[in-house]
Amino acid sequence: MKPTGPGPASTSRTTRLTAAPPPSVRVRAPGKVNLSLRVGALEDDGYHPLVSVFQAVALFEEVTATQVAPGSGVTLTVDGPQAEAVPVDPSNLAWRAALLLAEHTGVDPDVALHLRKGVPVAGGMAGGSADAAAALVACDLLWETGVPRTDLLDLAARLGSDVPFCVLGHTAVGTGRGHLLTPAMTRGEFHWVFAAQAEGLSTPSVFAAYDDLTGGNAPPVDLADETALMQALRAGDPTALGAALHNDLQEAALSLRPELGRTLEIARETGALGAIVSGSGPTVAALARSRQHALAIAATWTAEGAADTVWTTTGPAHGARPVG
Ligand code: C5P
């Protein structure tokens, strides 16, 4: 029987139409809220010892890493809310993550990175750290470098104190600079609302304000202070969690942005179970009783002009992992 199917002419046409796009990997990594952040006195290395309970929330940065011709180097593009506020040069943490992984594994640092922002920029929610976490995982998959998880977490810690947590996700206790992580047991889902400001706060300036407020004599941090918080997480009890939220940097952030005091007050007036500045701010986080309640707090913040953008979401969320 004569073979069927396209002859040589149509084969070449088919080939042209279905030419494979360059290999590409898409990875999502979460933003975070510090359920508790306790800060000790500045040490000689320029960092403060911390005890922090992190929770990842379902606001994600998405990084697409696409193969490019050998010798092309790293390129970076960004889209999404506040994309114009993000540097697209080697100072970007995602770019640095690609270079660090290439150096560690001995591959050539050739990749086109694209970031889709889903976490407020410079808001105390680790958006830049999530970019670095996602870029590390995406490049490791694209370049097939198969870096073991523990090494990947070490590289993450070299990029920034919050980057290992953005790789890990869920809920975890961080010590050291915040980079030494122990996963925490939690039950259920918590409903969060975030009031983000168009103008961010720089993390070093908030830590410097903290040093001024404490006169450089902050008491040592102690894991035992988190007992009530850990119990609330294990029980999945949002009321107890709301009461246990804590942030040593809050007063420092308020000293730089006094208007955040009103944002916190509105959340409490609207029945939030707890309200705190997220990390070094200026984003304010409110814990709600339910999704409906989260929407009510968001609507009140918007109506009162207390935020430039409001976000409702849930936690805990997964760490850096590939999608679709
Ligand atoms: O680690 P990362 O680069 O994200 O930290 C940014 C800045 O935040 C540091 O340069 C330091 O000023 C401050 N920081 C600190 N203590 C920490 C973490 C960060 O003082 N534990």
Condensed summary:
The chain has 324 residues and is α+β, with helices and mostly antiparallel strands. Helix content is 35%, strand content 25%. It has eleven helices and twelve strands.
What does this structure look like?
- The chain is an alpha+beta fold.
- It contains eleven helices and twelve strands.
- The chain has helices spanning 8-17, 93-105, 127-142, 149-159, 163-168, 203-214, 227-235, 238-244, 250-256, 260-269, 291-303, and strands at 24-39, 50-66, 74-79, 111-116, 171-175, 180-183, 190-196, 246-247, 274-277, 284-288, 309-315, 321-322.
- Helix 2 (93-105) links the parallel strand 3 (74-79) and strand 4 (111-116).
- The longest helix has 16 residues, at 127-142.
- The chain starts with 7 loop residues before the first helix and ends with a strand.
- Residues 1-14 have low confidence and may be disordered.
- The structure holds cytidine-5'-monophosphate (C5P).
Which terms summarize this structure?
324 residues; alpha+beta; four-stranded antiparallel β-sheet; disordered N terminus; binds cytidine-5'-monophosphate
Note the topology:
Blueprint: H1 8-17, E1 24-39, E2 50-66, E3 74-79, H2 93-105, E4 111-116, H3 127-142, H4 149-159, H5 163-168, E5 171-175, E6 180-183, E7 190-196, H6 203-214, H7 227-235, H8 238-244, E8 246-247, H9 250-256, H10 260-269, E9 274-277, E10 284-288, H11 291-303, E11 309-315, E12 321-322
Parallel strand pairs: 1-8, 3-4
Antiparallel strand pairs: 1-2, 1-12, 2-4, 2-5, 5-6, 7-10, 7-11, 9-10
Helix pairs in contact: 2-3, 2-4, 6-9, 7-8
Bound molecules: cytidine-5'-monophosphate.
